[in-house]
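**User:** You know discrete backbone vocabularies at least as well as I do. Would you mind producing a protein record, from residues through to fold? Write it directly below this note and I will take it from there.

**Assistant:**
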Amino acid sequence: MAAKQNATAGADALETFTPYKPKRGEEYMNENQRAHFRKILLGWKRELMEEVDRTMHHMKDEAANFPDPSDRATQESEFSLELRTRDRERKLIRKIDEAISRVDQDDYGFCDTCGTEIGIQRLEARPTATLCVDCKSLAEIRERQIGRG
């Protein structure tokens, strides 16, 4: 992935995401690579936590008892959508915490099913990935087959 993405780094500075470029003969998931992914995971978690805080403040500030039922319904619908989104993000934060724990235990970057390397590019695209592309594809095929049965 050659495109650069902006990620929040620190309380008040923006830092540019740079894809990791492994050196020839470099060991997979060495200390530099683990530090690279720890930084990505922590930045992502920080962004999500900031969004949770913004939502809480927004809901407190915007909460009003509208006399018009249509206005009340619109506000409740908006709040419901925000809460569903935050719930999904809460689950993602849990996955990020699990990934950080795997980095700490030197178990990050390897497929849970077959033990092979997940790959740097895949992890940069989906830092919480726990399956290699092949095992993930097989799992999705199984899910579709079970879903249709």
Remarks:
- The radius of gyration is 20 Å.
